[in-house]
Specification:
The protein has 253 residues and is an all-alpha fold. It is 77% helix and 0% strand.
């Protein structure tokens, strides 16, 4: 078996594959959320930079068909400033993951994602037209979180879900944003030497199950009730909150 999984039992390998499949289904349906589901599990079993770089490469390669369809629906006026902010500040996130204590990073991520969820549940809505500085700021926060853990979704999800946009446009915005922003993250990870042979092994292992999940999730979105989209999006952020809380490690891992 691949060296990166050499110390894992067959049951652990099966569990990781199942998690990656579910993450792919979620990504294909909602346009985000795969990192929220996969990374909290993967970072307890694999060296965090390896897990982050492996998932980044996996998602960037396999999500391209989703991007091709999304570019026709997305709102470029708000995406471009967000991408610029993310591309700049992802380097701050990669510095954190390379130098800070992993446990401290996980607590920081937990509190940020929890705050976003509370904001959404409160019913708050950003009713004004997004300005470039606001979009840039949201992208900057997403970039930091993405650099740290590949969980960049909550800030931009909350930003676009809080608007009156249709679910199809919100989903398209998320798909295009993550695709373009990932290019900056790739460069940042490359500078930190995160792309190792273990990452290649992760790709070989994960491509089949994640690809199938993406296909099934994307197919499901076509027939889904628009109201269901927001419910699932909120639920995904709630999952991210629970699974990223270090205090629950004895029960979840």
């Amino acid at each position: 078996m691949f060296d990166v999984f050499a110390s894992f039992t067959p049951g652990t390998l099966l569990f990781l594959s199942a998690v990656l499949f579910v993450a792919g289904c979620v990504r294909g349906f909602a346009g985000f959320g795969a990192g929220m589901i996969y990374m909290p599990v993967a970072t307890t079993l694999i060296f965090p930079p390896t897990a982050a770089a492996g998932f980044l490469a996996l998602d960037l390669i396999l999500a391209l068909p989703l991007v091709v369809k999304a570019v026709r629906l997305c709102d470029w006026r708000t995406i471009i400033p967000a991408v610029i902010g993310s591309t700049i500040f992802v380097h701050v996130g990669t510095w954190f993951i390379a130098t800070m204590d992993v446990l401290l990073l996980r607590w920081i991520i937990f509190f940020i994602v929890a705050a976003v969820l509370i904001l959404l549940i409160s019913g708050w809505r950003y009713k004004r037209a997004p300005t470039p500085p606001i979009s840039f700021g949201v992208g900057a926060v997403a970039g930091i979180l993405g650099g740290v853990s590949q969980v960049a979704g909550p800030p931009v999800v909350a930003f676009w879900l809080s608007s009156a946009r249709q679910p199809a446009i919100v989903r398209a915005n998320l798909i295009v944003f993550f695709a373009i922003a990932s290019i900056g993250t790739v460069f940042a990870y490359w500078l930190r030497d995160f792309f190792t042979l273990d990452v290649v092994r992760l790709l070989i292992t994960g491509i089949p199950v994640y690809g199938l999940g993406l296909y099934l999730g994307s197919t499901g979105f076509k027939n889904a009730d628009p109201k269901l989209y927001r419910i699932i999006a909120y639920s995904l952020i709630a999952i991210a909150v629970v699974t990223s809380m270090p205090a629950l490690d004895p029960y979840l891992r």
